[in-house]
Structure of DUF58 domain-containing protein:
Amino acid sequence: MACAAQTLASRMPDLLLHASQIATTLASGLHPQRRTGWGDTFWQYRPAQPGEPVNRIDWRQSARTTHAHVRENEAEAAQTILLWCDFSGSMQWRSSSDLPAKLDRAIVLLLSMAALLLRNGERVHLLSPSGVVPLPPASSGLERLALGLCSLAAHASHLAPALPAPALVPRHARLLLASDLLCPEEALHDCLRQLAAQPVRATVLHVTDPAEATLPYSGRTEFCGLEGEAPLELPHVQSLQDDYKTLVAARTQWLDQHTALSGHIIAHHQTDAAPLPTLLALHAQMSQRV
């Protein structure tokens, strides 16, 4: 992982530039009323009640609808957005040299969203397996986040957790979580449920390689684990493709259902696709939650 961290640090300037360009494109393509308030969709609003003090009304949010809205006191107490990036061994994988590693794409997606949030004046921090981490000095908030991600990668092992420990997430924070979600379903279910109970609202970016969706192999194939798993050799792999695709579809449906039941949002992204459509779809989901 030390070598992987060094190569990530060498790629980070390009990833940072890519994220900044995506954020600029996304911001310019949004409706003007949405453009400066993307971060607002992380906060909980309620309709103003008769007799509500005028100074309690959030006029920017109210201008987007036909009703006056008040931002809840709980949300006002913690206007913090945390980024979690999965640094486990499986995130280093890519099925082709023409594709980015899942980790690289996860970082681009996280930094693109962070750029929009920072433009809106939101406070964005990094979450590590040991809790919220201080960011290194840099010329901009986005660069500080990028350097912080490099530092986390340098200290991660191939057995790094895919998911954060809910107990380390501050109450009422908002969490942006990027992972391939290659973890036990029970662990993911418990994490989402515990976050919701705190309450923490999570936005999950599920990042996958296209080969993980289709199993595009044939003949006798050996699969080598990236996180200490024993190798698995299978004959006639192509005969398993239909059943494999059925299982992938079922798991995607399970992810959608359990994320929604816990009150969170999930977006699926495949590394052979451009990041921008995923972020546009995610923005639409978040806007509907306000």
Summary: Confidence is low (pLDDT under 50) at residues 32-42, 73-78. The first helix runs from residue 2 to 29. Residues 2-43+79-288 form one domain. DSSP finds ten helices and ten strands in the chain.
